[in-house]
């Protein structure tokens, strides 16, 4: 895997995923190191100024008017990190921790924070050595950045706290020693430079967009299989109809569903005058509209993420003319809003998927299929309870779609009196993506069985997807442990193998 250089150009979200999820190595560019040295020289000059400068010779937050004597400034930085490393709850996933570290490192490399070269190089070395600070799920308000999670990063760089190296929990000092690294003693301004950023929520946005690349294509595949298995028509997906309402995402999904159904003997079998149905149910006919809305939402989130990836977020910042200026760029509102927007779109896509699944199981609406697609209805329950599982997940997805970003609880003695809750929006989005993956897996598993119960064959591409499912999941037969079938199908969705079989090529949503 190619080494990713930080400092010559903003990272894109694919590079973030490569480092966070696939552990690509990173390096700092010479230009970045020069910028770091230049901005540090500005901070060093201000440290000796008799006038107060926030974060350099003063306290933090509501204590910004408290002057700090030079002899106490190292202790000030250490105290900041120790007190702010206050997360709680389940351990955050390693890929999120890596993304958090990487994006803070990218901001440090802009030379706008005043951090020292040695501190920045230590962060890069920790990332390459796979030293991942343990971060609890709760603690960030998404304003003044992801303070608590980022403080755990800085604490580890100081040689304190707990880290994870592969599956082993270690004291940070021991992990650094094993990697041949020396802990840092923070100087003026560095505490703020290491913790004032939107890096955690941005990292989770990057990974969510990668996962949605895969899952929205999977939703199109699932819809095509359901149209086929429920004897639907491909007529509503025509390009001329999409042109009447030219949303980009809608056109993409419609074209993909139509291509997946092209040449299907099942679809062709009921195109004649003997088919008396005027139009299909909404969950079949309107799939491009719902999936397309989610695609357009993701595209908007992508644009917001790209701006954030090109940003240098700290408070105060060192400007090119040497001024050190306080600002509000650490507020997570832009990211929080799109994280919530994506959760809404996911809930809608999953809700439609569950409705298509339910049609297969109801003999009044499945056009000749046995109840619940059971082998021996009455003795066997077939896929009855798979739809219950879908319904339970969809219900949770609707709860997760309630925006986090509309909430705010003041902090820091009312100095920080409006916060974004963007970290919480990102955490619930990760759970929503997991739920969508499971809902879609149940739909494709159900549609595969429904198609196989028809007299006519599936189309080439949907048939290839069914064949891939059958390599791991048996077809119709007496009832068996259904949880295993669901999990095996979910694994095929997660890996991208199902899409590849249908001729839709991804890397499993991982880049």
From TrEMBL:
Gene3D superfamilies: Fumarase/aspartase (Central domain), Fumarase/aspartase (N-terminal domain)
Protein keywords: Histidine metabolism, Lyase
Pathway(s) annotated for this protein in UniProt: Amino-acid degradation; L-histidine degradation into L-glutamate; N-formimidoyl-L-glutamate from L-histidine: step 1/3
Subcellular location, record wording: Cytoplasm
Lyase in keyword set: yes
Top EC class for this record: lyase
Catalytic activity, reaction form: L-histidine = trans-urocanate + NH4(+)
Chief location: cytoplasm
Domain of life: Bacteria
InterPro entries, per the entry: Aromatic_Lyase, Fumarase/histidase_N, HutH, L-Aspartase-like, Phe/His_NH3-lyase_AS
EC code(s) of this entry: 4.3.1.3
Similarity section: Belongs to the PAL/histidase family.
Protein name in the entry: Histidine ammonia-lyase
Organism (species): Agrococcus terreus
Gene name, Swiss-Prot/TrEMBL: hutH
């Amino acid at each position: 895997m190619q080494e990713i250089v930080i400092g010559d150009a903003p990272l894109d979200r694919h590079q973030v995923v490569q480092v966070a999820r696939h552990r690509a190595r990173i390096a700092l560019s010479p230009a970045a190191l020069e910028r770091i040295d230049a901005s540090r020289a500005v901070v060093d000059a201000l440290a000796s100024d008799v006038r107060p400068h926030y974060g350099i010779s003063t306290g933090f937050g509501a204590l910004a008017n408290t002057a700090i004597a030079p002899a106490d400034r190292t202790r000030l930085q250490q105290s900041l990190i120790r007190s702010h490393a206050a997360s709680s709850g389940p351990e955050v996933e390693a890929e999120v921790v890596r993304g958090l570290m990487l994006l803070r490192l990218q901001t440090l490399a802009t030379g706008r924070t005043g951090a020292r070269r040695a501190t920045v190089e230590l962060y890069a070395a920790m990332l390459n050595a796979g030293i991942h600070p343990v971060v609890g799920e709760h603690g960030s308000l998404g304003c003044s950045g992801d303070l608590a999670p980022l403080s755990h990063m800085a604490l580890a760089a100081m040689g304190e706290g707990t880290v994870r190296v592969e599956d082993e929990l270690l004291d940070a000092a021991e992990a650094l020693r094993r990697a041949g690294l020396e802990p840092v003693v923070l100087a003026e301004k560095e505490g703020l430079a290491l913790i004032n950023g939107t890096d955690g929520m941005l990292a989770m946005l990057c990974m969510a967009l990668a996962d949605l690349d895969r899952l929205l294509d999977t939703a199109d595949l699932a819809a095509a299989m359901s149209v086929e298995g429920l004897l639907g028509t491909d007529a509503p997906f025509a390009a001329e109809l999409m042109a009447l309402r030219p949303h980009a995402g809608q056109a993409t999904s419609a074209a993909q569903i139509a291509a997946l159904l092209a040449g299907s003997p099942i679809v062709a079998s009921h195109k004649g005058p003997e088919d008396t149905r005027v139009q299909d149910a909404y969950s079949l006919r309107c799939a491009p509209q719902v999936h397309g809305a989610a695609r357009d939402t993701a595209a908007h989130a992508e644009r917001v993420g790209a701006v954030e990836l090109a940003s240098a977020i700290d408070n105060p910042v060192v400007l090119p003319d040497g001024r050190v200026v306080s600002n509000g760029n650490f507020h997570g509102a832009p990211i929080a809003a799109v994280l919530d927007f994506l959760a809404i779109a996911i809930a809608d896509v999953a809700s439609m998927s569950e409705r298509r699944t339910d049609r297969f199981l109801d003999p009044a609406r499945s056009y000749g299929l046995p109840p619940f697609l059971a082998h021996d209805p009455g003795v066997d329950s077939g896929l009855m309870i798979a739809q219950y599982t879908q319904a339970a997940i969809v219900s949770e997805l609707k709860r997760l779609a309630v925006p986090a970003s509309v909430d705010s609880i003041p902090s820091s003695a009312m100095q920080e009196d409006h916060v974004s809750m963007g970290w919480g929006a990102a955490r619930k989005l990760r759970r929503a993506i997991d739920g969508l993956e499971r809902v879609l897996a149940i739909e494709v598993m159900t549609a595969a069985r429904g198609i196989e119960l028809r007299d006519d064959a599936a189309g080439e591409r949907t048939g290839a997807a069914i064949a891939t499912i059958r390599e791991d999941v048996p077809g119709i037969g007496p009832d068996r442990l259904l949880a295993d079938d669901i999990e095996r199908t979910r694994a095929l969705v997660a890996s991208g193998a199902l899409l590849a079989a249908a001729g839709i090529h991804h890397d499993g949503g991982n880049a």
